[in-house]
TrEMBL record:
One of its GO terms (cellular component) is mitochondrial large ribosomal subunit. Residues 292-314 have a biased composition (Basic and acidic residues). Keywords: Ribonucleoprotein, Ribosomal protein. Pfam families: Ribosomal_L27A. This is 54S ribosomal protein L10. One of its GO terms (molecular function) is structural constituent of ribosome. Belongs to the universal ribosomal protein uL15 family. Residues 113-188 form the Large ribosomal subunit protein uL15/eL18 domain. PANTHER family: 50S RIBOSOMAL PROTEIN L15, LARGE RIBOSOMAL SUBUNIT PROTEIN UL15M. Residues 68-80 have a biased composition (Basic residues). InterPro entries: Ribosomal_uL15, Ribosomal_uL15/eL18, Ribosomal_uL15/eL18_sf, Ribosomal_uL15_bac-type, Ribosomal_uL15_CS.
């Protein structure tokens, strides 16, 4: 028995020493039990990136960045700002030595890449309909791609996963992707787009590929037939005009055509499946400046006859 109970009467000692469960005062048990609530105030903390302690310069020696604010004593760097690449007044190193590597091509286009295995996964999930032409609109709305600043380029990774024929109308396509799609019975057509044209396409204000320069020779007739069947135009593939398509769908804008030589030559090339390739003559190449080997051979084989004037004296 506890020493503290020794001085109490015997009956009171037995009552206190008895278990609380057998006591008639069981309803007072919570009042006799001592509880301690664990405090979480000492363990509270903010997210690791929520607070960034800013160094306050020139606010006394206690901050560690007082007086000279970490700039040291004297000199140009302590008194004012030094331009990037400043070399003490002499010729800059970038002028003397030039740049080597890590240069940014300001003329490069930012394409959204998409591989064939990803397109096949979206088709298997029912997010893309393979019976209709697959354009930048279908790829973006199905979240197959997430950005389309200058267009879409199809790559050939996962070509063996392609199960059914598909019809692609994109900005660019690799040679392996073109070979895989055509081997599966599909078709690829490359179309010129601008950033504003893509915005109009996403807003359903422009058709994804039909324009004045587009014809049945620009892509497969199956591709155009699938699109025209949805429009319910009731006309042949060769006779459908851009005006009738715009009226049927209530479109506001027309698709632009390329104006730069580099873009014109790309979409005139049959190897790229360009939509302007049908404009080439049988012996003409896609270049606007250089002649193709067939043109040079044909020109070398024919000799120009010298035409003399009628009233020539000698």
């Amino acid at each position: 028995m506890s020493p503290r109970l020794m001085g109490l009467p015997m009956q009171l000692q037995q009552f206190i020493a008895r278990p609380l469960q057998s006591s008639p005062l069981v309803f007072l048990a919570p009042q006799f039990q001592q509880t301690r609530n664990a405090s979480i105030l000492s363990s509270l903390s903010d997210n690791p990136s929520a607070y960034n302690k800013r160094i306050r310069r020139g606010r006394g020696p206690a901050s560690g960045k007082g007086k000279t604010s970490g700039r040291g004593h004297k000199g140009q760097k302590a008194h004012g700002k030094v331009p990037a690449g400043f070399n003490g007044g002499q010729t800059k190193d970038i002028v003397v030595s030039g740049t080597r590597g890590e240069e940014t091509n300001i003329f490069a286009l930012e394409m959204a890449p998409v591989n064939l295995f990803r397109i096949q996964e979206w088709i298997d999930q029912g997010r893309i309909d393979p019976t209709r032409p697959i354009t930048v609109r279908e790829l973006t709305q199905s979240r197959c791609i997430h950005k389309h600043k200058d267009g879409v380029k199809v790559l050939g990774d996962g070509a063996a996963a392609l199960k059914q024929p598909i019809h692609l109308v994109v900005s660019r396509a690799s040679a392996s992707a073109i070979a895989a799609v055509e081997a599966a019975g599909g078709s690829v057509a490359t179309r010129f787009y601008t950033r504003s044209a893509i915005r109009h396409i996403m807003a359903n204000e422009t058709h994804p590929f039909i324009s004045m320069a587009w014809s049945a020779e620009s892509g497969s007739k199956e591709l155009l037939a699938a699109e025209f069947a949805k429009l319910n135009l009731g006309a042949e593939v060769e006779t459908v005009e851009e005006k009738s398509v715009m009226e049927a769908k209530g479109l506001r804008y027309r698709l632009p055509d390329p104006t730069r030589r580099r873009d014109i030559e790309y979409y005139r090339d049959p190897a790229h499946r360009g939509y302007l390739s049908h404009l080439l003559k049988p012996s003409e190449g896609p270049s606007l400046f250089f002649r193709s080997p067939e043109e040079r051979k044909s020109a070398a084989g024919t000799k120009k006859e010298k035409v003399l004037p009628e009233n020539r004296v000698w």
